[in-house]
Amino acid sequence: MARCTNVWSHNLFEEFRKLDTVLNVYPVVSFDTEFPGFLATSPRDCGDVRRYADLKCNVDAMNMLQLGLTPSNMEGEIGGTWQFNFFFSRDLHVYSQDSIVFLEKSGIDFVRLETDGIDLQEFSTLFLSLLSRHRDLLWVNFHGLYDLGYLVKLLSNDLLPESITDFTRLIGECFGSMVDVKYMARLCDGLLEGELSLEKLANILGVERVGGAHQAGSDSSLTCLVFNNILMTYNELQPADYLGHLYSIQSRICRSQQQPLVRVQPPPNALVRVQIPPNIMCFRAAPRPIVPIFCSPYGMRRVQMKPVHTVHRLLF
Predict the structure, then answer these.
(1) Under a CB-based contact definition with an 8 Å cutoff, are residues 68 and 51 in contact?
(2) Which residues, in sequence order, are CB contacts of 238 under 8 Å at separation 6+?
(3) Tens-digit pLDDT profile for residues 77-108
(4) Could you tell me which residues are beta bridge partners of residue 31?
(5) Phi, psi (degrees; rounded to nearest 5) at 139
(6) Residue 286 in 3-state DSSP?
């Protein structure tokens, strides 16, 4: 089993060169992200409009912490796993405290993220270049709506689009062919119609995890192994049945022949004021310095933040 390579700011360019070479031979990329929680939560049975409103509320306000990439081929051979660790500071970024505590217990090093984390703007430039050189990859996720939300935000250097139709169009433009393993499981006998976690699905299929749960590298590797196991076990599945479908929304991702998104570079080290979305309100309350309310049109949730960063966003 290929080991997981942790990527920080000091080895980013070296590891990107290795990944670029590997993708020439291993064109199936399983991926996973870790992010600092939820500010708005969606009811299990809600429709696309509500679910996307909550997705946009969360992703617009926060940044991802890790990205795991595991390239493989259609025979199930793995070319390696890379775990990219991004700059994150509790003094600068929005987060859910409960999620940070949980992720710390899962092994994410928040101290090192602040001192050696990868600059998001630098990573985005490299990632866009990588996508432009590898336009025929198959991207594999497990329940990847939020993973894709954070990646689209990263690549577009902007807030998520207003509509879910534009969102799925951007996914097709950036990534092309997409598979959601949780959606695939709905089509397979004995897999509980997909109503199960990645860990439980792996246990049913007899797939063993390498590394710890809730680490993006380990989760991307396990997604890869589960995907290949399903392909071998349920060989009656046809790609047309699952390509472009995400588990939690009806809108389908269509492959685009357009080039990847071209991002307008901000001035170096720019700190810009971002127009506050209408679902974010801030007010002063003692004894806490600032308590914003993040709300979709359907609900509200209070999250503590530092005062100055309520109305600013650093463009990394």
Answers:
(1) no
(2) none
(3) 999 999 999 999 999 999 999 999 999 999 99
(4) 69
(5) -100, 130
(6) coil
